[in-house]
Amino acid sequence: MRGPQPDVNTYVSRLLACDKDNNADEALEVFAEMQRAGLQPTVFTYDLLISACAKGEKADVALDAFTEMKLRGLLPNLI
Fold it and tell me: Full-prediction pTM beyond 0.85?
């Protein structure tokens, strides 16, 4: 019997921890893992990714994520 599958809330919690720890590399991995699991990013998951990247001195990656977010028709609410 398999355990419960992670949902968007699971990934939000992990991204919040990455953001709090200024851990951009881990945030990028969590975000990619979420997408590989077939879950679509939300405004909040993008906001957390962008914030973690900005705090983790990966401004170029944060800008790429912001651009991707806009291309998906999502508008930021924390930036």
Answer: yes
Give the N- to C-terminal CA distance of the chain in Å, as an integer. Answer: 42
Q: Where are the alpha helices (DSSP H) in 2-73?
A: 8-20, 24-36, 43-55, 59-71
Burial label, 3 (beta-carbon count in 10 A; 0-12, 13-18, 19+): exposed
Can you tell me the distance from the alpha carbon of 73 to that of 70, in angstroms, rounded to the nearest whole number?
5
Tokens of 38: 């077939």
pLDDT at 27: 97
Conformation bin of residue 5: beta by default, left when phi > 0, alpha when psi is -120 to 50: beta
